[in-house]
Amino acid sequence: ERNKTTIFDLLLDNTMTLGLVNAPVFAREMVQLLRLRDPIVPVAGSNHPLAAYGEKPLYMRDLYQHTVFRVSMFPQMTAFIDDVADLAREGSGGAVIAVPMVMARRLVMMGQGMTFLPASYIRAPINSGEFIRLNIVDMPLLYSEPVIIAHRNRDLDDAHQAFINVFAAMWHDLVQI
Which end of the chain is more exposed for a tag (fewer CB within 10 A), N or C? Predict the structure, then answer.
């Protein structure tokens, strides 16, 4: 869990062979080997007041009295959360707080608020019941696009190619919640 620039640096100096980053990737020195889609899912901790809704429909306006942890992974996500923050300011008691993804996950687990995270990242806490998937009916469909990248001038050996093939084959199971 490092920033994209650090991963690029590690690939450029041959410390790593493969990197996993969010699209877009504009670095000319890198080649995209596999591009995937990961649905963004609204979640709250099982002990948070929003969890009481279960499968019942919620609307974005229902979130505005609660703390929303902002995780910006890609431009569409940033724009979406900026809209949430602007609308939440219109007389609500909620706050929008920018935090890293790992911190948002932990804070939501503690029941401190809600957030929007990639399905692959929250599969285990959803399956264990620590997170409740919120049914927000007026939320736009958002997807993170993870990309496996490598240095353009580095040949992959059979083991690295096999890893990419296995990762691609297992991806569908990782995002199912």
Answer: N
